[in-house]
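Dear colleague,

Thank you for sharing your sequence with our group. We've completed the structure prediction you requested, and as agreed, I am returning the results in plain text so they can be pasted directly into your records. Please verify that the sequence below matches your submission; if there's any discrepancy, let me know and we will rerun it promptly.
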Amino acid sequence: MHSQNPIFIPGPTNMPENLRRAVDMPTLDHRSSEFVNILHPALSGVKQVLKTTAGEVFLFPSTGSGGWETALSNTLSKGDKVLAARNGMFSQKWIDMCERHGLEVVVVEVNWGGGIPADRFEEILTADTAHEIKAVLATHNETATGVISDIAAVRAAMNAAGHPALLFVDGVSSIGSMDFRMDEWGVDVAVTGSQKGFMLPAGLAITAFSPKALAAVETATLPRWYFDIRDMQSGYKINGYPYTPQVGMINGLKTASEMLLREGLENVFARHERIATGVRKAIAAWNMPLCAESPELYSNSVSAIMTPDGFDANKIVTLASEKYQTAFGAGLGAVAGKLFRIGHLGSLTDVMTLSGLATAEMCMKDLGLEITLGAGVAAAQEHYRTTA
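Please find the predicted structure tokens below.
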């Protein structure tokens, strides 16, 4: 039986019906004039969500991981040095990708639960007087740990060091859900995917390049073909693609951007913060800590909940799926089995969130954890009932 329950993973997210219909469209000739009315509004909408006027957007049939590869392969050369913090599974994956591309990675080790240490970045960049570091990689929202990092502080550290490196930001689980300011923060390449804040199926890598990053493309020598933004630029100039595009997905992105902008980005961010706060109040009522080490690191798109020592948190995820047909996120990498994750981004309401919290409580109670049924739900209810 197909479950009609909402999902509570940090992506893919729940899909509004109008976006499902926007994606589900008849076959359209992508070389026809009709495609122009889909492609360019989608590109324009993404720019507005990213808060950039200077950046140029490129959409690839892929996922956020393909967006990472787009950033690296278009701007860097084999042997180049990059700086990154390892504070979770997805920052680790980006580091691994760099190494496989023949890049030298200066890795700053951070506890899983901590954010990017901008002060340490400043020290490293200041010491790099020969400017060997060509790019700084920053994971805005570490999906594995529910940690948000301060990208403005990273840019400030780079500026204080007087360093010319490019700034690449993984905004896969933040863009469209939390404030992102590409131009103001001096982001050179921003990366996200269709299946998170844009509330679409997985399938589009969404990237944006600053003028500085576009200039770097001309001297970069890493191999690229499918992800070559120069070919994409040429395609856009004639209102097309260098190969077959995902027309339905791009139409969905156009519609999703319109939805977000119609609601108002600040309202979208406030809605995510409000729902996330209710989830955190529920977690506090369960007497369980978050993986994120301090409140300023709390993500508004996903909460990673630490379970008691010796308890396998994967059991909660498995039981929720098998008994209650509800999806939560499992722990990944170094925190596998130590936590479970509640995604609260995209298309979500108070009522939907309360159903997820109630299900988590039932699972924990079923598995013998010391949980009072309704305690977390009541804490979230009080928050939602008394806030606008």
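Summary note from our side: DSSP finds 13 helices and twelve strands in the chain.

Kind regards,
the structure core
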